[in-house]
Amino acid sequence: MEMPKSAAVFLAVVAALVAQAAGDWNHGSATFYGGSDASGTMGGACGYGNTYTAGYGTNTAALSGVLFNNGASCGQCYAVTCDHQSEPRWCRRGASVTVTATNSCPPNWALPSDNGGWCNPPRAHFDMAQPAWEKIGIYQAGYIPVLYQRVSCVRQGGVRFSIAGSSYYLLVLISNVAGSGSVGSAWVKGPATSRVPMTRNWGANWQALAGLAGQALTFGVTSSGGQTIVFQNVVPANWQFGRSFVSNLQFSY
Fold this sequence. Notes:
Elements (H helix, E strand, L loop, with lengths): L4 H17 L4 E8 L26 E5 H4 L8 E6 L13 E10 L19 E5 H4 L10 E8 L8 E7 L2 E7 L7 E7 L6 E7 L2 E4 L8 E7 L4 E8 L8 E3 L7
Parallel strand pairs: 1-5, 2-4
Antiparallel strand pairs: 1-6, 2-5, 3-4, 3-6, 7-8, 7-14, 8-11, 9-10, 9-12, 10-11, 12-13
């Protein structure tokens, strides 16, 4: 028998309160940007470009510095719900949304942290794509207090490698990462080279100072959750800069 809607809402609220009491939820705040279709959220400090085609859709968010962590959080997922106890007028009670970190929300030192400078440290703030924000808040509010927790990411298909750089410099965007959602470390090698350690250049872009053109590329990637996967020859020898390659492997944590 189908559960009455009122009962389902009540149980969702109780579950959120129980989780909060157990210490699983953190307090933060949220605003929105990018328009009703989230078209204004494209690009961003993680480097994913078009979040529609990158597989992240409109459930995305720019994180304040304390959460963004200089790009280390790119791709991570967060469950966010409006804090109904703090602001009952503007919350969609019992609703929650899972967003992916795709951008950074910079501080605004011209405004106080409690009145417009929402991303000023040490605030934990989500500037969410408008469609995602409206799943938990009433549009007219513009700003709501939230409860959030990091959760496992679910992705369609395998990890994606997008190649840029030059003859002696490789820049790789590693995206569509499931599980922990973000990359902790990586290396690359070709059949004529040893493993070359990669370092984070910016956002989700990783660099290797090596000439690897004309070689099939194997990547070893360790997620921030500690899982390591070797993507053997995921990029064929005839690769060109500006192309992306999708693996058939995916992270679970």
